[in-house]
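Let us work through a complete example step by step.
Step 1: write down the sequence.
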Amino acid sequence: MLTKVIGRLPRSWIKAASRARWRSRLWAWGFDLVANRLRGRDGIVQQGVGKDLRFNAGRSNAGYLLGTSDPDLQVALAVCLSEGMTFHDVGANVGFFSMIAARGSGAREESGATLLAPRGKMGIAAG
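Step 2: predict the structure and record it as tokens.
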């Protein structure tokens, strides 16, 4: 419910709240309270190129679930990738951009992302 309400706000309002977070302890407390409620939950991306995709940002950026993180990169992936292309997201973090790329390249069943784990160990996530 919270994701849907915030997801309907204009992107400029969400970004303004994000910037205000660094100007006031009270804003930071409120912003973190809301962001922490969005983290670690399965949800539907609310805006951007990934709109309507199921996603869980884990403990990472709650803006992934809102669809407000790096909108220019989201659009670039959508424009540059076409069906059948391969996209390598090395250092994928939670795989948000891998998910966007999978949609753009027409992946229907399987996609993957590579993440370097602590101490240089290699981890591969597939979904």
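Step 3: interpret the result. Residues 91 and 120 are 11 Å apart (CA to CA).
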